[in-house]
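FORM 7B - TANDEM STRUCTURE REPORT

SECTION 1: FIRST PROTEIN
SEQUENCE AND C-ALPHA CELLS:
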Amino acid sequence: MRAPESVALNTRTFSPAYSSFNAQVLSDAGALDASFRTSLDRNMEAATRLESAYTYRFEDSSEQLRVGDAVSSSGMWGSTVRYGGMQYGTSGAARADVITSSDLATGGLAVLPTVADALFNMGGATLGPQNLSVTRAWRTGALVASDALGRSVAIDAPLIARTRLAEPGCAEVSIGAGRVRRDYAITSNEYGPTFANTTVTCGLPLGFTVEGHGEYLADSVTAIGIGIARQLGPFGVASLAYASSQTADRSGWYTKVGFEREGELINIALRSRLQSREFRSVDGLANDDPIMQRDLASVGVNVMDGARLSVAYATQVTWSRERMNFIALQQSLALGRGSLSMNAGHSLTDDLGSSVFLSYKRPFGFGLRRSLSSIEEFIPLLPEGPSFD
C-alpha cells in the first residue's frame, strides 16, 4: 500500500472546556479534511464533527471538485451558507466580508453573516437565526463574535469587500448543491432543506466584468441576479448589482451600487444597498423587519510612511423605519517594530455611543504582521453597543 504524501493534525483552539482539531491527508491530486471539536473534560459531551470533505484538483486546471461540507459562494449580493453536498468550480471561497470562522456554532440554518450585518447588531444583540452576538474587546476595541455556547473569535474580515475584475472569458464559475447544515457545531450530522447556488463570472470586451448569481432553498425562496463592474480609467472601479426573489406568496427586488479607488495616498470605498420590503434571500428569511437601505463609506489617507488615518461612516434604515448610523475614526503610527493606534467612534443616533481606544502592538518572534488596507482597518472603529439601542 502506498503511503500518503502528507498527513497533518492541527489544533485551532485548545482549552480544557473547548478544543478544535483539523486532520488532513494531502496528495498531488487532492486533500481529505476532517475537523471536530471536543472537551478535555470527561464529563462533557463527546466530540462534535464540524466539517469533513474531499477536494480533488484537476490537473493543469484551476478547477476543483469538493464533496462533503462546503461554504457557498455569494457573488456580489447573495447569501453564504454552510452545506453538505457537492461544489465544483474555480473557486469556492466566500466573499471577503463574510464571517466564516468554523469555530462558531450557529443554531438553525447555518447562514453566515457579513461584517456589516455584525456591526448593525452590536451591543450583545443576536444576529437573527445564527445565534451569534457581537461585542468589542475592551483592550483593543476590536470586534469579537460570540456564539450561543460561549465561544468567541476576533472578526478578521473587511467591512467592504473589494470588487474583483475578471480576466477575458468565462473561466470563473462555482456550482454547489446539497443540504444546508443545521445546528452547526452543536450537533454532528444535522442537515436541513435542499440548497443550490451558482456563480458565473465573465470578463467581456471594453473591460466589463459581468457576474450571474442564483440561489435556491427548497420550499422557501429562489433568487437570481446579475452584477456588472468596470475599471473607470484612473478613477477607480464602479459596480452595480440587481437581483429578484420569489417566495411562495411574494416577489421582490434588490439593487446595490459601489465605487472604490485605491491609490498611494487615498483609498475610498462606497456601497449603497436598496431593496423592496418583499425581497428575500436565504440569509434574510427569518428577518421580520427587512433592510430598506444600507450605506457604507470609508476613506483612508496615508499621511506619511508608517502613519495612516481612516474614517468610516455607515447607516441603515429598515422597513419599520428603525435607523442606525455611526461614524468612526482610526489613526495608526508605526513605532519601531510595533504600532500605536487610536480608535474613536460615535453613534449619530443618540449621544450615548462615543468611545475611544488606545493600543500598542509589538510582535514577539519573527512573524510578519499582515498588511491591511485602510478599508480593512475600519472594522474595530465602532462605538459601544448601547448606542444602537
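SECTION 2: SECOND PROTEIN
SEQUENCE AND C-ALPHA CELLS:
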Amino acid sequence: MATVLRCKDVGFDCDGVIRAETEEEALQQAAQHAKEAHGLDEVTDEIIAQVQAAMRDA
C-alpha cells in the first residue's frame, strides 16, 4: 500500500505532498524535500518521528 505525507502535517507552512510505495521511500523523499524546500541539512530523530507519525496510507 502506498504512503502519503503532507508537509503541513509535520508542522511546516508548505503545500508539499509526498507519495511513495514504501515508508522508507517516503522518508528518503521527505529528507530530500526538507533539504531543498526548507533548508534543513540534517534530519534529526525528532523530525523522523514527526514524519512517521504524519504518514498515512493512500
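SECTION 3: OBSERVATIONS ON SECOND PROTEIN
The first helix runs from residue 23 to 38.
The beta strands are 3-6, 17-20, 56-57.

SECTION 4: SIGNATURE
Preparer initials: ____
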